Amino acid sequence: MRALLDANVLYPTVMREVLLGAAGEGLLTPLWSARLLEEWRRAALRRGEDATGEIAAARAIHPGAMVEPAPLDVVLPDPDDVHVLSAAVAGRADVLVTMNLRDFPTRVLSAQGVVRRDPDGLMVELLHEAPDAVRGVCAAVLARARAMDDAGWTMRGLMKKARLPRLGKALG
Question: Where is the PIN domain (predicted)?
Answer without folding.
Answer: 2-101
